[in-house]
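Sample intake sheet
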Amino acid sequence: MNDLGLPRTIALRPAERSVLRERGQREVFCGLTSIVWLHRKMQDAFFLVVGSRTCAHLIQSAAGVMIFAEPRFGTAILTDRDLAGLADANAELDRIALALLARRPDIRTLFLVGSCPSEVIKLDLAKAAERLNARLLPNVPSVRVINYSGSGIETTFTQGEDNALKAMVPLLPVTEARQLMVLGCLPDIVEDQFKRVFDKLGVGPVTFFPARRGSELPAVGPKTWVLAAQPFNGETLRALASRGATPLAAPYPFGAEGSLRWFEAAATAGGIGRDHIDSVLTPLVERARTAMARYRARLAGKRVFFMPDSQLEVPLARFLSRELDMALAEVGTPYLDRQMVSADLDLLPTEVAISEGQHLDRQLDRVRAARPDLTVCGLGLANPLEAEGFTTKWSIELVFTPVHGFDQAGDLAELFARPLERKTRLAA
């Protein structure tokens, strides 16, 4: 803030664009939400949240799973006595964790997930993980206990995944082999599609982090190239780089252009010839563009406003602007990790307004002034904005839905067209 109480503007390549940095009231979703997709990905892992009843209700509601179905997540509920320091929370946590592992012998990785309540009372889950590993190692060496923070105090809900993966990096084995690692939690169907494209390109071997089983940790070393599939895994990427891996810069695989440039980055690093790259990727690009064509006609010329929520905002704005001809009223993101989104940022129109962080009242004023055709925002803002006559898109749906790659390009475009089509039908 400056002396007048106005937000500061920070120059990013001053000749091209500037970024509005805002600090104030924020509307964010809880980092525990990432458990919803992480527990589906790592099929031998269990996520034990150490938190309140509110934490338990949030995860169960977000996952849409009844507790009697025995999903691979749960909550060790902190009571009033725990929060007041009248009970030994560590002893109770050990008892619950050991009972859980005895009941569920299929668990190979147990994540102790910190929450706002556990962090407020300074419950040391790192020590708890060390203690449990020491107790388990002689008898159950196949089980590993890992801790990370999923606290709602974090910048945005997707940081839960980043924290979980970063906590696993020190456990990754070492390799001297040349390989490509794809970083970021992807639906199995997307991972299979990516594997087929890499195989056709001749890029390999390829590993995915996280793998489908938490116990199957990919190796990392000085000849590992890392290609990020999610823009919110910056801390994990930097942790991998500290293990000797080399990050590859590329736009994210959203839409035809993003997917093309993403696969090209891997193929070029692998020394694949230009002719072969084109022969493999050109048909996929054409198919993706055909799938998007019907939605481009609906979205072209429409103005979209991104409110900060998931950290997907910059690559999705690039996709909407360049591939669907939408106009960008403002691109807000909770945190502008320049290392992670520079390739997408460079492809945005130079005049587009970009904001980092949030001052909710000021941003809502800008939404009302801009009157965009579509506002991409968090769940907590969608209904109030709809009540004011705005058309909204839940940003969290773009995290839960398979949207990466050539085969999902049409589906991704449809997600943005659907709210506009709904509004048209209701007005008819």
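Comment: The chain has a mean pLDDT of 89. Residues 274-299 form the longest helix (26 residues).
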